TrEMBL record:
One of its GO terms (molecular function) is small ribosomal subunit rRNA binding. Pfam families: Ribosomal_S18. This is 28S ribosomal protein S18c, mitochondrial. It comes from the Eukaryota. One of its GO terms (biological process) is mitochondrial translation. One of its GO terms (cellular component) is mitochondrial small ribosomal subunit.
Length: 163
C-alpha cells in the first residue's frame, strides 16, 4: 500500500514539474516513464497517443540512429593482386620472386603475403611451374631481384599464423 502512495506522490510531483517546465525533454521523458509504471493512471486512449507522440523517435534527440555505419567494423582486406588486377604468369619472374624468401628460397605463406586463398594457390602453382621450366632458381632468390621494392614485410605478418 505504501508503494502505491509513493507512486501516486511521484506521479503528482512530476505532473506539476511538467506544467512548470514544459520545454524540458528530460522531465517529459521521466514523467512519461513514471506515468506508464504508475498503477493509478487511467487507461485513456487520448493520453496514450500523447505519450506515444512525446516518446517517438522523431521527437527524442537521444534515440538510437540506425543509419550510422559501425565505426568499429574492420576494414575489408583485399589482396594486392586482386586490388590492382595483376595477372600471374610463370614468365613474370620479378613478381614471383617477391613471394619467395631470399635466404631459404621457400614460398611465403598467405598469412605473411596477405593474399587471398585463390591468389595464393595460383602463386604457388605458378612458382612451381616457373621453377620446373627453368625461369626461376629453386633454392635461392636471384641476386638481381634482391633490391626490388617489398610488397610486404615478411617479419611482421598481416594475419596471425593459422597453425
Amino acid at each position: 500500500m505504501n508503494v502505491l502512495r509513493n507512486m501516486k506522490f511521484v506521479y503528482q510531483a512530476t505532473n506539476s514539474m511538467l506544467r512548470l517546465n514544459a520545454n524540458s525533454q528530460i522531465v517529459k521523458t521521466c514523467s512519461v516513464i513514471l506515468m506508464r509504471n504508475c498503477s493509478t493512471s487511467k487507461n485513456n486512449p487520448i493520453e496514450e497517443t500523447a505519450l506515444q507522440k512525446e516518446t517517438s523517435p522523431q521527437n527524442c534527440e537521444d534515440m538510437f540512429i540506425s543509419d550510422i555505419e559501425n565505426p568499429y567494423k574492420p576494414k575489408e582486406r583485399v589482396c594486392i593482386l586482386c586490388k590492382y588486377k595483376i595477372p600471374v604468369d610463370y614468365k613474370n619472374v620479378r613478381l614471383l620472386s617477391q613471394f619467395i624468401s631470399p635466404y631459404t628460397g621457400q614460398i611465403y605463406d598467405k598469412h605473411i603475403t596477405g593474399l587471398c586463398d585463390a591468389q595464393q594457390k595460383r602463386i604457388v602453382a605458378t612458382i612451381h611451374e616457373a621453377r620446373n621450366l627453368g625461369y626461376m632458381a629453386i633454392y635461392l632468390k636471384e641476386a638481381k631481384y634482391l633490391k626490388d621494392p617489398k610488397l610486404f614485410d615478411p617479419f611482421s605478418p598481416s594475419r596471425p599464423n593459422p597453425h
